[in-house]
Specification:
The protein is an alpha+beta fold. It has one domain. Helices cover 44% and strands 17% of the residues. It contains 4 helices and 6 strands. The strands form 2 sheets. Strands 4-5-1-6 form a 4-stranded antiparallel sheet, with helices on one face. The protein has a two-stranded antiparallel sheet with strand order 2-3. α2 runs antiparallel to α3. The longest helix has 33 residues. The chain is elongated, with a radius of gyration of 19 Å. Bound molecules: zinc ion (ZN). Zinc ion (ZN) binds next to α2. Zinc ion binds next to α2.
Amino acid sequence: MPLSTDVNLPRNHQARFPSSCIQCNNDANGNTLRLRPHLTLSLINSESRFSVEIPACQRCSLQIRFRRTCLVLISIVVVFGVMFLVWPHLKNFVPDHLHKWTIIGLVLTCLLPFILFSVFFPPVIDLEVDTLTHSVDYQFRKSEYAASFAKLNDDADWVKIE
Ligand SMILES: [Zn+2]
C-alpha cells in the first residue's frame, strides 16, 4: 500500500486545487499556503525553484509550515552536530579518501529516524520538481484528495497517478 499518492503534471501547467482546505477539508475561506519543494533542493539546483498556492485554512497552514520548518531545523542541527561534535573525534581513525563518505553516512544515519517518520507519516502535501522531465510530482497523503486534484487538472498535457 503506497504511503502517499503522487500526481505528476507538466511543470508549466497551472495546477488547480480543490477549494477546501487540503488538510481538514473545511472551507479554506480563500486562505492559501504557498508551498515550495524542499529548500535544500532549491538551493542546489535553481531549476527546481517552483511554488504553488494551495487552499488551506489558517490553522492548517500554520501546522503545515511548522512541520516543514521543524524538519529543516532538525536537519541543520544534525548536520552541524555531526560536523562539529562527532566528526572531530572520528576524523583520525578514518582514511583520508573516505572522509566525505563517512560524513555523508553519519549524517544519513542520524537523519534516518526523521526520514522514516516522513515516509510512514507523510506530510499532507509535498512537491518534487523533476528538472529532466520538466514535471512536478504533487505528493498527497490522502488518495481521495489526489484523485480530485488529478480530475481538476485533466486538461494538462499529461496526468500520471502513481
Ligand atoms: Zn484546515
